Amino acid sequence: MKFVLSTLVLLAAATPSLAFVRPSQSVQRTAPTLNMAALPEVNIGIFGGGTVGGGIVEIIESKREHFEKMTGKSINVKKIVVRDLDKARDFTVPEGCVITTDFDDILGDDSLDIIVEVMGGTTLANDVVRKALSNGQDVVTANKALIAANLPDIEALINKVNEGKDEKVEFRYEAAVCGGIPIIRSLQSDFVGDDITMISGIINGCTNFMLTAMDVHGKSYDEALSEASDLGYAEADPTLDVGGFDARSKLKILIRLAYGIDVEEEDISCRGITDLTKLDFQYAKMMGGSIKLIGVAKAVGDGKVAAFVSPAYVTQNDSLYAVTGATNAIELISKNLETTTLIGQGAGRYPTANSCINDIISLAKGDKTPLPFNPPSKDAKFVNNYESNFFIRLKYKDALGITRQCGEVCEKYGVSIHSMLQNPTTKSDDAAFAIVTEKVPLSSVKKFCAEIEELDWCQGPAFYMPVLREDWETALV
Amino acid sequence: MKFVLSTLVLLAAATPSLAFVRPSQSVQRTAPTLNMAALPEVNIGIFGGGTVGGGIVEIIESKREHFEKMTGKSINVKKIVVRDLDKARDFTVPEGCVITTDFDDILGDDSLDIIVEVMGGTTLANDVVRKALSNGQDVVTANKALIAANLPDIEALINKVNEGKDEKVEFRYEAAVCGGIPIIRSLQSDFVGDDITMISGIINGCTNFMLTAMDVHGKSYDEALSEASDLGYAEADPTLDVGGFDARSKLKILIRLAYGIDVEEEDISCRGITDLTKLDFQYAKMMGGSIKLIGVAKAVGDGKVAAFVSPAYVTQNDSLYAVTGATNAIELISKNLETTTLIGQGAGRYPTANSCINDIISLAKGDKTPLPFNPPSKDAKFVNNYESNFFIRLKYKDALGITRQCGEVCEKYGVSIHSMLQNPTTKSDDAAFAIVTEKVPLSSVKKFCAEIEELDWCQGPAFYMPVLREDWETALV
């Protein structure tokens, strides 16, 4: 059976190209010094010969001897499925490696031990992954959308395939969340005896790049987005980035690993960066910090987990503060380890390929990962509300009684005020002030904002975001 | 054979006690819900029933069912060797677990699968580890001093024991470097296809706590040290911390893992924090940053690796800047991943025990780690010199011609000046100014300082440290 390739063409074309050839890694396969005849082979088929696929091939070839020493095996890329045979490759095709457009060339080939899926999309990719696993082949994927949409189904399939068998298929997806940051394996192996109470972080490189450009370099939102797109940091549809939806997909996967819960993505409260203004950055600076788009999930007791994606104010002392540009960071709070932070490259050819390589070598040396490592919890429940200090920014036209009215509405909804900020340099036609609240539920903030927006002096919608600082711990309820 | 316990007594007594009972984890073993009869057992013997040993037992007991689900095995602590049977334990001894003072109770017991060494020291601990490995038992240790002193010997022994055998012994030491930070496994599994060009970080919690106290809280050196000791952050001999020697031991281990080189600790240039003054922090603040004690190792080309331990100036934008208190951080620069940073707890009961637990569960589920993962490189060479921007602070008594003379000596040794700093608020009896250099070799800075120290106006020894900032990359040559 041949898959129809038109969808794949679209998907591949939609992937931003970060490809470039690094001469030092784009080398011809050299004759190994070890006795090849004695080494068992690990044969690999790759779906996708683009940015990431090319990076994987380059690393395997340039590290051939090193991998042989480490695993005692010869790692060979035997087949690569591409959408267009005639397209020039930005890597050297290994000797003896077949380039094909026919999916069945790989899927029907039992001599392949590991199938690597780096073509993207959720339809064909899902077919490929399921067929390979059903066929008893280990699978490595870098496909975030696929994992976010289908991890439970894939795990169920694997359990079925493995039932009663000694030789179990393995499934790895380190590259699917935050590219080069080893967060998947860390969640699978560094917290086995621990309880994660909170997982939060900067998990979208495009928006962090934009926020840095706006905060540090004074760029406008449009300039920042255009620059991010030019550099290949934005998704084909940048709404996925700026709307917070890409971060939400990743957060869903992290929640599954940290808490064993399957959450519907739509259930996670999600606000992107589109409503942020220069003024918000000015106020953040006055308060001694900056603004980051973060995803947060927290165990809030009674087996409940809450989560959100939102811009948030962070102080200079927060480990997320110094995470600038397209860099990603994940902070884990846990019972044993207290705070652990991982910072690294969330995307790009070599960071993503590096994660795939780690998975491939781990499989080649025979490591097993119980699946799922944290079994889905039937007791755990997802709740969509949280409590935090909030930053609320209100645009206004000058009038008498603003402070009094704010105070009254705050009181009505139990929103206790920590401080008020007003920058005297603000122009009068763009006047705005900000309130920082004590710890209050999101629901109260929403009610407060709705009522304030009805008042004469209030110009346009109110903007609010949680405030993260050491002494003001954000609590999700 | 019975080991003489007097040395062990001394060692155990010298270890600062961080022990406290967390009620939620100090529980009695509960009846497992899985069918015990069907589960294979993994039996553990522990040397050391103190802070870390107690934490390990607590976690194993509180996570019993979870571990059974994950590994399909029953994990049982069967024996614990302690120095004093009569001492009250800060954990609940599991049902059926024997507490003994007789080393041979464990070492002669073939029913034990994993030997955990958390008693510290390098003499008896080395004996224990070697005997267990020779006996075909897997070993987990948290012993930094042991690993720094004996890793190559232990690896050689393991290779000998494993030769020609299908069932190989495994050796794990995640807890030996930076407690709860999973840096060992990260170096063994996240960089398998990568080339690490630089590894640097804050790898001593005691000194980082002291530097934070001095910088942020304005404490004196003596106040900061006394507070660190009270909180259990200091080694029994705090010279190991403040002199940089503890950091150097860890750096030696990291160099071995990142570059496959065995370095003599004494060959690594090492300066502690004892010469730092309040003025240095004032100048660091003027420059917009702070001072951290860091360890750095860098591949400098031609198979050469250079390294040092020293206080260093870091900017606010450096991910190390926000790492305060007893927290540790390790930053890795590599070809594929660019920059990766791991931040976490470098010591303490549960962070350290958590790392031991990760090792134990990894062994229980049958993961294999090729040993050594990065084979020792015969070609790689260690060189003891480096190039950097430097901060040089000179105490002086007022005189004419200071600037001219500094300029002349700088010129003589090729030390190019980037900027000069002088705080006008400095008291005249403690007057000092600082020079920030362009990138120059350490050797030139030393010559410059030696000649300046001879001049009439120069009071006491010159203090110098490297300057780390994004746009001023420290190079080791």
Automatic annotation (TrEMBL), chains A, B:
Pathway where this protein functions: Amino-acid biosynthesis; L-threonine biosynthesis; L-threonine from L-aspartate: step 3/5; Amino-acid biosynthesis; L-methionine biosynthesis via de novo pathway; L-homoserine from L-aspartate: step 3/3
Keyword tags: Amino-acid biosynthesis, Methionine biosynthesis, NADP, Oxidoreductase, Signal, Threonine biosynthesis
Domain Homoserine dehydrogenase catalytic: 182-361
Membrane-spanning parts: none
One GO BP annotation of this record: threonine biosynthetic process
PROSITE patterns, A to Z: HOMOSER_DHGENASE
SUPFAM superfamilies: Glyceraldehyde-3-phosphate dehydrogenase-like, C-terminal domain, NAD(P)-binding Rossmann-fold domains
Molecular function terms from GO: homoserine dehydrogenase activity; NADP binding
Reaction catalysis annotation: L-homoserine + NADP(+) = L-aspartate 4-semialdehyde + NADPH + H(+)
EC number(s) on file: 1.1.1.3
Gene3D superfamilies on file: 3.30.70.260, Dihydrodipicolinate Reductase, domain 2 (3.30.360.10), NAD(P)-binding Rossmann-like Domain (3.40.50.720)
Top-level taxon of origin: Eukaryota
Annotated signal peptide: 1-19
Family membership: Belongs to the homoserine dehydrogenase family.
Name of the protein in question: Homoserine dehydrogenase
